[in-house]
Amino acid sequence: MYLAVQAICDTHRDKWENIGAFARLYPQFVAGIAQITPASAAKSRSTVGVTEDKQKKRKQMCVLSARAAAALYAFADEKGNPALKVDTDYTYNGLMRLRDNSITIICQNILSHARKHGANLVEYGFDKAKANEIAAAITAYEAIKPQARKIRTETASAGQDLRDIFMQLDELLENRLDKMMEQLESTSAEFYRQNEVDTWPIIQRLSKNYPSLQITLPKADPQTFSMESYLYHSKVQLQSNTWGIQEPLNGQLIAPQAIDMILLPLLTFDGQGYRVGYGKGFYDRFLSRCRKDIIKIGISPEAPVAQISDLNEYDVRMDYCITPEKVWEFA
C-alpha cells in the first residue's frame, strides 16, 4: 500500500506540492518506505546455516564423549567404582537430549574423568588423542553457540524495527497526510481513485452483449468494513457512496459462494499477482467468503511493480490482471 501511495503522490505532485505541511511530511513518508527493504531482509535472515553447523558440532561432541563415557563406565564397573559409573552413565542419545546449558558441563565432566583415568582406559579403546578430540569438539561447540544466539536476537530486533516502521508510516498516512489531502480541490477519495480503472463501461458492455450473464455489484458497509453483492439490472437504483462509487440501493442479495468471477479494484499489483487496494480490506474479507475456485481478475492502467513488500496472511493473490499492454496470468 505504501508504495502505491508514493507512486500516486509522485504522479500527481502538482496537486499537493504547494501545501507546505504536506511537502514537509511527505519526505518522511518516503524515507520510511526506504527502510522497509533492509529491515525485511534483516528479519528474513536465515539461521539455517549456523543452526546446521551448531547441530553438526553438537553431534560430534556427543559421539566422542559417549565413547569416552562407555570406556569409563566399563572401567568403573570392573574396578567397583559406583560414583564413577553414575558420572559416566551416558549414551549418545542421552547426551543429545540434554539442554544447551547442561550438555557442555556433562561432556566436560566426562573429559575430566577420561584424563584422570587415561592410563587405565587404553585397554578399553580410549587414549590421550581421543581426549584431545573431545576437548576440541567442546571448544568448537561453545564457539558457535553465541553466533546462533546473536542471529536470533538480531532477527527478532529487525522484526520489531519493521513493526515500528509500519506504525510510523501508518501514523503519517492515516493521521496526517490523508487529512492534508482533503485540502486538495478534489476529495481524498477522488485523489486515490485517479489511478483506478473505471469498470462501468465494462459492466454496461457485458450487460448489453451478454444479457443472460448475471452481474453483481458490491455494496460496502464502512462501519464493519464488510461488503455484500447485489444482482445488477436496469431497474436497480444506484447511489454514490462515501468514496464516490456507485452502489445498489435495492436488488437481490447474492451469496458470495454463488459468484464465479470477480473484478478487483487496485492501486497497483506485483509480478506475483498480489494487489494493493485502498487499505480497508473490503475485498479481502469478501473473498474469504467466496469459493476457493472463484476467478479473481484485476484491472490496472499500469504494469506491475517488482514486488509488494508489506503483504500479510490475509492478502489474496489474483488469477489474472488486465493492463493496456497484456493480460498477466499468475499460476
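The record above closes out task 2.4. Task 2.5 opens with a second protein, given below.
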Amino acid sequence: MSRPLKEGLDYLTLDCNMDTNFKLVEAEYGSKGFAIVVSLWQMIVGEKGYYSEWNDEIALLFVRERRPDCGVNLVNEVVRTCIRRGIFSKELFETYHILTSSGLQKRYLIATARRKDSGIRKEYLLLKVAPKQDNETETPVNDSKNSINTDNNTQSRVKESKGKESRVESPHARQQSDTELYASLCSKYGRSFVDERVERSKQYKGTNMRTVVKWCEEDFGKKPVRKRNGFCNFQERNNDYAELQKQLVQKSLLSNDKKGGGK
C-alpha cells in the first residue's frame, strides 16, 4: 500500500512586521486576538497547507485543542473580523466556507515547489495564472511574476544547421528554475534577506535570479565593521601582563616590609 501524500507543512513562517489589517485585529482584541489568528494559521498550514474548512463543529474543536483559553464566541468573532478586514478571503468563505488567502497560497506553493503532486484547487485559487502553453496546465504565479508550479522542468529541442541538437529552456522552464532558486535562497539566508536583493535587482536592467544568488552570497559573507565611539576609541596597549603582575607583587612586599619595620 502506497504512503498517503502529505498535504500540510511542518512549519509556519511569520513576517516580523505584520500588515495593518493584522495590527487592527490585535488592537481590537488584544493578545488573545493575536493568538487566535496565529493559531488559525498554524491549523491551516499544518493540515491542508493553504486552506481549512470552517463551521461550528470545527470551531469547537479548534477551541478545545488549540485555544482553550478563548471561548468559541470570541474565536468566531475574530474569524469574522479577519474576513471583514481581508486577512481571509470573504468570497471563498461565503462560497465554500473555507479560510484561505493569497498569502497562504503563495507560501504553500513556494514551500512545495519540489513536490511532484502539489497544487491548489482551481476553485480556491486566488493567485494570478500564467498563460496556457501547449500540453501544459495553467500555472499559479506570485506577484513578482515568478512561476511557482511544481511540475518537472520542460525543455524544447531545436536542430542546428549542422544537424546537432541543442537544448533550449522554454520561458516556462526558466520561471520554474527561478522559483526553485528563490525557495532555496529563502531556506538558506531567510526570506527578508533575499527579498531585499530581489527588490534591488528590479532597479537594474539585465538582472535575474542568478544575480540575486550572487548578491546573497557576497552580502551574506560580509561582516559589519564595528564603528568606534567615545567609549572604545582609544589606543590599544601591548602590555606584558606577567611582568606587570610581578611588579605589583614586589611593590606589595615592599609595602608590607615598611609597615612591619614601623611596628
